[in-house]
Amino acid sequence: MPRSERSPLLLAGLLAAAGVAHFAAPRPFDATIPRGLPGSPRTWTRVSGAAELALAAGVALPRTRRAAALATAAFFVGVFPANVKMALDWRHRPAPQKALAIGRLPLQVPLVLWARGVARNAEGRS
C-alpha cells in the first residue's frame, strides 16, 4: 500500500485512539478544558472525544475523506487552546512533564498540515 493510501488510515487511527481515550480516561482531558467555556469540563471532554471518533470515521471512508480531513484540520486548530492551557498549568511540574506539555504546542502544526494533505490527496478521488 503506497504511503499516500496509508496516510488517511493512520490519521483516522490517531483520531480514533484519541477519541477512545477521551472516554476511557477522561480526567486528564478534563483538566485541559479552558475555564472560560460554559458547562462542565467532562461534557467538553465527551464532545471532543465523540468529534474525534466521528472525524476518524469520516477520514477512513474515501467518500467523506476530503470534508472530514478539512474538518479535522479545523478541529486541530480548535483544540489548540487546550494545549496552551496544559502547557501553562504544567509549567511548574518536573521537567519531563513540562517538556511533554510544551512539546504538544508545535505538534499541532504538522497535525493540521497532515489533515490538509489528506484532504488535498482525496480531492480527485471523491
What does this protein structure show overall?
With 126 residues, this protein is mainly α. The protein has one domain (3-120). 78% of the residues lie in helices and 0% in strands. It has six helices and no strands. It has helices spanning 3-24, 27-30, 41-60, 65-78, 80-89, 95-122. α1 packs antiparallel against α3, α1 packs across α6 and α5 (80-89) runs antiparallel to α6 (95-122). The radius of gyration is 15 Å and the shape is globular.
Note the main attributes of this structure.
126 residues, DoxX family protein, globular, mainly alpha, DoxX, transmembrane helix
Characterize this entry briefly.
By secondary structure, the chain is an all-alpha fold. It contains six helices and no strands.
Question: Helices, strands, pairings?
Answer:
Blueprint: H1 3-24, H2 27-30, H3 41-60, H4 65-78, H5 80-89, H6 95-122
Helix pairs in contact: 1-3, 1-6, 3-4, 4-6, 5-6
* Number of continuous helical runs: 6
> Which of globular, elongated, flat, extended, rod-shaped describes the shape?
globular
Outline the biggest β-sheet.
none
Number of domains: 1
User: Strand-and-helix sequence, N→C?
Assistant: HHHHHH
Tell me the distance between the termini. 19 Å
Strand element count: 0
* Beta-strand content estimate: under 5%
Oligomer: single chain
